[in-house]
Structure prediction request, 299 residues.
Amino acid sequence: MAGRDIKTRVNSLELIESLELIESLEPIESLELIKGFELVKRRRNKDFLMNDALSGSRHTLTSETAAETTPSIESDSLAVTASGLEKTVVARDNRLTILSRLDLQVKSGESVAIVGTSGSGKSTLLGILAGLDLPTAGSVSLAGKRIDHLDEDQRATVRGQHTGFVFQSFQLLANLTALENVMLPLELAGVDNPGERARKLLTRVGLEHRLEHYPKQLSGGEQQRVAIARAFAGEPDILFADEPTGNLDEKTGESIIELLFEVNQASGTTIILVTHDMDLARRCQRILKLHGGRLEAVV
Ligand SMILES: Nc1ncnc2c1ncn2[C@@H]1O[C@H](COP(=O)(O)OP(=O)(O)OP(=O)(O)O)[C@@H](O)[C@H]1O
Ligand SMILES: [Mg+2]
Prediction:
């Protein structure tokens, strides 16, 4: 069912891209597309709200779809497993190997920092671990579920159940306010009082005075904080964060770091983050360096 598919894509890049596509279309075309997504577009073509057909219990949804789509393997205490990962891309007839024979195991509740030089493949790796991208070879499991052989919709289901993702480039929806950007995944998941919850999350990241601002009216650091609030919105078991403090001043960065580790400790959230900031990396239980396509422990 189309409605259920959308709801399972709470954290999915594809949904974000779909909505961006909608925003770029002529009003009449976008209305058709939105109908297809069972979304209702309101208020001067600016806001998206879910129609009633999409409200309902997120838990019913996830248990149902999990049984249907996600074969599981026994590894309850492991949040993320990657084995023999390869990622090769072809750019202008050149084959580029980004990841090579890479192995990783991250336990539930663990915090892991991935460091490495620019271009070493950190964002590529994070995208593959989160099921946003596929490896060329090798296996990836999230919360005990093998995801590398699932199709896009099935991966979206697993992501919706387990992950939050803070993108290096934020990926906020330009035509939604800060509040609406954080509300969207909550509405898609059928959570009660999404506005109130989104407001609380934005207050936690110090943006209570910017709720009605659109992304282009926010500074880079403010956009980053909206992206962090949005990633937390679905209370993910596993949070992937690509340079979560990359655009923040020291003091704001520190408060975001506090928030990350508070959630890690209070809710047992597994955190896998990419950073160039060694102070942040050292706050994690483990630091791994991506070098030559593989991960090495940093001691
Ligand atoms: N689809 C693609 N096609 C061609 N090259 C790619 C593709 N995706 C990534 N690359 C290249 O692979 C390398 C790794 O990219 P990636 O974004 O993962 O690096 P990174 O470690 O996150 O870098 P940064 O610290 O600058 O964010 C880069 O050299 C990039 O240009
Ligand atoms: Mg990167």
Notes: Residues 162 and 237 are 5 Å apart (CA to CA). DSSP finds twelve helices and twelve strands in the chain.
